[in-house]
């Protein structure tokens, strides 16, 4: 029996399902490299749009997502997350940027900008050399990237964070990271982030210090200025207490995942009352049962009851009688955070908790922050949770500050893994570009042109910093001349761009540094993404499904 597939038309259209799109280099001639050029052009559109957000003087973008939410930020990862990028090649750069953000927090725009400049220089090489030499271009980029990772970057290390428990040393790396996200707020936020990280810092199995980003929480309250932001060692709930009593010290905590209310059957029933006594005693059983439960909880020493659901009026009545505090937390995620802050175990059953199920807090009180009432639960000294209370005048600024804090915490997490530093302000990129250009002549093959293109692409960082600050390209030429004239015997050249004085100055004196691990990760991801795009010669796209977008 002959299958229907054998009767289909020949070619890609007959082999694939109906609606499948296919693009290849042969569509416009044997050596036209049409797919590669189209992919590069799509990536360049994305990179050119976001390169203006690089650095402290980077411009913000206003993005309206599919839900109508307005996002105003210069954070590259946040912009790409809200953009619905459809082109598959551009999505590769988007995924590389997202990975950099999750791993390091900083350097997201560097991934996109450097990958875009590599692809732009590749486009020029294709026009000059022809696509038949694509393998030499890819090999040259691979050699240059390997040399940067193994030789140049480690040799340009200008210092090390020796003690991650020292707040002064943490501030050295936090200020540049926060300044690139929200310039002007670094002097306020950097000490808060450093103190929060030191509060939640723990030891790993190998004895190394580590910081969990989930242990540092942010609470945004509109009003006032960034300078009014503060660090709270514990948990902050953005609502008041349900009971009359609003403060307590040295209190035990019971957390109930469900509501604090009387249980009821699912089936509906009818109650027949014949006398007035029946009516008077109808609710007595329910009241006595609830009083027994609340009294049992109070006798264990619990002062604060946390409910993950509703709290009945009857339960609140007896809580006030026994002078207990009650807090409602609607979010399961927030309930988990509160348990982490207090050491409590969430209970499904309603009743007196056992000793190991109770949490503990030094104090619980209600305070007014701006126009909002919040409940502050100050945790014990051994509890690893900190909350940064952010203040700003608009919701967009608050969201930007929250992203800056998250990136700062990830930077501290990276410091715990690798504390080596390199100079910022485009100094390390220009130093690598000058050295790669010198080494390119040692390669007799066509790879030397790709290595020079790689070196030229590294110059995009100081050039973009200068352009975003409103300077001309003479600054980049002067910076290149300073690095080219530097004698290697005198040590590392630390000349970079100072965006405040509009001059080429010592980055070491200005304490403008980047983490070597963050820089290495960003450059590696950018090179890998660019090489992946260059190796694509065909695109096969299935027909989109009719379901909702995930």
UniProtKB/TrEMBL annotation:
Subcellular location: Cytoplasm
Superkingdom, taxonomy of origin: Eukaryota
Major localization class: cytoplasm
InterPro entries: Chap_CCT_theta, Chaperone_TCP-1, Cpn60/GroEL/TCP-1, GroEL-like_apical_dom_sf, GROEL-like_equatorial_sf, TCP-1-like_intermed_sf
Segments crossing the lipid bilayer: none
Pfam families in UniProt: Cpn60_TCP1
Official protein name in the record: Complex protein 1 subunit theta
